[in-house]
Amino acid sequence: MLSCDICGETVTSEPDMKSHLLIVHMENEVICPFCKLSGVNYDEMCFHIETAHFEQNERERNFERINTIQYGTSDNRKDSTLQSRMEVNSSIHSACASNHPKISAQSLPKDATLKHKDLYSDNLTESRKFLKSKGKQCDQTKIKESIYETMYSAPECPFCGKIEDCSQDMETHVKIKHANLLDTPLEGKVFILCCDQPLYDCPMCGLICTNYHILQEHVDLHLEESSFAQGMDRVQCSGDLELAHQLQQEEDRKRRSEESRQEMEEFQKLQRQYGLDNSGGYKQQQLRNMETEVNRGRMHPSEFHRRKADMMESLAMGIDDGKTKTSGIMEALYRYYQNAATDVRRVWLSAVVDHFHSSFGDKGWGCGYRNFQMLLSSLLQNDAYDDCLKGMSVPCIPKIQSMIEDAWKEGFDPQGASQLNNRLQGTKAWIGACEVYTLLTSLRIKCRIVDFHKSTGPLGTHPRLFEWILSYYSSEREGSPKVMCTSKPPIYLQHQGHSRTVVGIEERKNRTLCLLIFDPGCPSRDMQKLLKQDLEASSLKQLRKFVGNLKHKQYQIVAVEGVLSSEETAARRQDSQIFTAEKIP
């Protein structure tokens, strides 16, 4: 008799053993009960299980020991246990599958899921493979007992883990204790299951608890986590806001610093431009420029000392030294218009006026003072103003500065005085129409300021300015001669950055108007060319200004109209507290 080493079956002959091996063991392919490996022989499969599935194999052996201790080794007992477990597993599996098709291993607790898999996954296959693994060591009966003891233990509840003695008890337990689970869809729920207790849903995550206190603790954890997250968000938000605030403050500080620096630079530039940078006045500039001329070889040292002496004498007396004055131009113009100027229909000339130009001491800032000298030179030759200007001569520039300061002290134009720090002497401060008006009014000379504050013609021109000056000089009588020598003083004309003196106006044969202007920037050698007997039209080019030549944004004029009484002078002083000018248009 021959015995099969694999299954223990006995046969009578060697051919029968070969047939047995071929039919029973070769045709039935050996498959790994854990990973489904196939295509290898018996020895290779045993080696594979021992090496690759050592932990699973050990667990099965432990189950075998426990079952042996609990239920003994009786074949009948084992068979009964196997049958009961199979019945319980079958009933539970069928109940869950039929009533709750959505219940899956993923929806059950981890322990229950593992037991569920152990009970229902490939039991027969594992039994068969385990039988083969024991074939070499045990007979057929012992192998079956080992399989029963390893694969099956007392029935265990897949929901709460309770162990019953038989399948009927387990079925009753499931129906009574877990009826709510069998009747309620469980998809998407996470369970903490406990028998004999009601279930509570977490309102925040859907977790099902069997105890109210557990649920409360669980919800408290949610709240603590949320509170912590919110606190961290607030801390982060607070830190971000503080950082943003600091960055904004730093940016504002830099911006204010840059604005302050730019304002200071602009202010210093304006101070230099208007002679308020404490770099000295007329006397200091005159000496510096003469020294420069000597150093460049354009002035002899003896000439320097002679001019310095004359300057000191002029400053001491407060009278202009006359070195920049050119007289007789108005008479020369009268002769020219009488004998030539065929393209001129009529011309109106102001009263006699001398031309004054800038010198070393006031070059770049003294135009306002020089125009006042021109205007005053005409008034001093007009008998109508003898009472106001008795014993007066054309003052030098420092004297004019002193006279304006005296007018401020009397209460004229306090706003203008404040803008110039109530001080002109010893500075190169510019003066304009307001300061000339203030000085003339303080001398009781009646005058007016007219502000042509915007253009009144095409291309930024000011035809209204020309019309106003024509109206000022003309008598508007028909049959008037070609040349009108009026008694009207010249007009002080101010615009941005410069000032000039209007001494007459032409009406051309094409009805256009042309102003005759003395410019303090024009030196004496050019003005003296107008004194020639054979004066040519080209020589008047520097005097003539047509409408298209005056395109500054704004012009102001100071026009003398007579003499003021003491009461009128006081009234105008009061009016100058808030300085206003007549505006055209």
From TrEMBL:
Cellular localization per UniProt: Cytoplasm; Nucleus
Keyword set, alphabetical order: Acetylation, Cytoplasm, Hydrolase, Metal-binding, Nucleus, Repeat, Zinc, Zinc-finger
One Pfam family from the record: Peptidase_C78
Listed EC numbers: 3.4.19.12
Keyword Signal: no
Reaction catalysed by this enzyme: Thiol-dependent hydrolysis of ester, thioester, amide, peptide and isopeptide bonds formed by the C-terminal Gly of ubiquitin (a 76-residue protein attached to proteins as an intracellular targeting signal)
Record domain C2H2-type: where: 200-227
Source taxon at top rank: Eukaryota
Function in brief: Deubiquitinase with endodeubiquitinase activity that specifically interacts with and cleaves 'Lys-63'-linked long polyubiquitin chains. Shows only weak activity against 'Lys-11' and 'Lys-48'-linked chains. Plays an important role in genome stability pathways, functioning to prevent spontaneous DNA damage and also promote cellular survival in response to exogenous DNA damage. Modulates the ubiquitination status of replication protein A (RPA) complex proteins in response to replication stress.
Family: Belongs to the peptidase C78 family. ZUFSP subfamily.
Subunit composition and interactions: Interacts with RPA1 and RPA2.
Protein name, UniProt field: Zinc finger-containing ubiquitin peptidase 1
